Amino acid sequence: KTCRASLGNKRCGIDLAQFRVGGVAASPVNSQKLTDDTRTEALDHFTGGTLTFTSGACTGLSMEVKAYAPGRIELLLPMPRTVMDGDTYTMTAGCDREIETCNDRFGNVLNFRGEPFVPDPAVTAMPAS
Known about the structure:
The chain is mostly beta strands. The protein contains two helices and six strands. The longest helix has 6 residues, at about 100-105. The two termini are about 30 Å apart. It has a six-stranded antiparallel sheet with strand order 1-6-3-4-5-2, with no helix packed on it.
């Protein structure tokens, strides 16, 4: 039922550049959690996306975003080096592979590669007689 394409690949067709933002880490809690009060996108907008550091000790390193809430970012794993206040990054929106996200966030439902309206076989199966 979920999409089989990877966000941004040829089958998906999304240009990730238009869903990428830049930011500055402020008051990192640790190398896995950071804040950026300028990030005001909707809850989970970046969950499943990628954050790449563009300055500081982690320059060039990327990590999947585990959870996103406006102003707060939690990475899937801690970064191998210390994240400092003022380190810059780029972050790309995430996709949970659901048709609603494909439509609402990316406007890309025509390229959705899943079958969300096919009934679950467990629901439609006839009981044994």
